[in-house]
């Protein structure tokens, strides 16, 4: 492969430059140009594209009609769908289920974690969302919550690499397990929880790193009972949030943006992402996509149809964030959270993961580890 280059407004860790990005053998080899202010990026030479870091999504249940729990080539197909929407790295996210079904899903995910599918995002590993959650706060999770065991988690990790675990710290034994798992190198998030503010603070002190889909499936903020949301807003450095403007009101997103310095966006996308309205699988559930959302028969929100390019547009065009800040929320912050210094940023030596967009933040091209993704069939 010969060195390739692209000209435009390139978002570097130091801000935008007007210049060139060169990449070769999957890595960025050179970025050169002169610094420009975001005002010039927004209103300057309209023929020059925006070149931003590829998106990183730590919470993906499905896409293109496929669900992570179904096995087979589902992970490869959803990785391809999300790549066509600018996601260059993701965590395949499981559902609460009987342990045998989780094992089966992990075995099926392993090959895609080991080798990036052609035309797809890099699957960095697994986000184990449950089954170690509070049965009283399942949200759209099936009712198979159970007590956690470090030996069980290690056995699952041997099947496919677990990068992130969601659990409820208030359950017996879980607080101690947070510390042991963190020491063992697992990233722990608090979620699907009926825990108190004090439970959240204690879990953070024991090594929990963040919160799963902030505001959703956790105890809310009250001025005399701050709840798990209060613990996040008062103490967290990192947390996920779903910016589809359906799961969380824009005003609540603004609160989180002001409170949590490294808040980052996830899609919590389901098999319905990139697909027409209809019925789809979500773990053991059947869910319906309609009116821009995905719901269980009783109306409970059940994941989303969001893609990360739309998440970026929502942050900039609906919430008014500067492009540079919004880009961090869909890319760099998640990379930092996962301890990845060669993804989520455009710099020499980093992976050549980037998106090319126009001023309306519509995708023109996506490059994953140096591979140009075919956007012709983007959903």
UniProtKB/TrEMBL annotation:
InterPro entries registered for this protein in UniProt: Amidohydro-rel, GlcNAc_6-P_deAcase, Metal-dep_hydrolase_composite, Metal_Hydrolase
Free-text comment on the cofactor: Binds 1 divalent metal cation per subunit.
Residues where substrate binds: 140, 216-217, 224, 247, 301-303
Cofactor: a divalent metal cation
Alphabetized GO MF terms: metal ion binding; N-acetylglucosamine-6-phosphate deacetylase activity
Active site: 268 (proton donor/acceptor)
A GO biological-process term: N-acetylglucosamine catabolic process
Keywords assigned by UniProt, alphabetized: Carbohydrate metabolism, Hydrolase, Metal-binding
Domain Amidohydrolase-related: 51-371
List of residues binding Zn(2+): 129, 192, 213
Domain of life of the native organism: Bacteria
NCBIfam families: nagA
Family: Belongs to the metallo-dependent hydrolases superfamily. NagA family.
Name the UniProt record assigns to this protein: N-acetylglucosamine-6-phosphate deacetylase
Gene coding for it: nagA
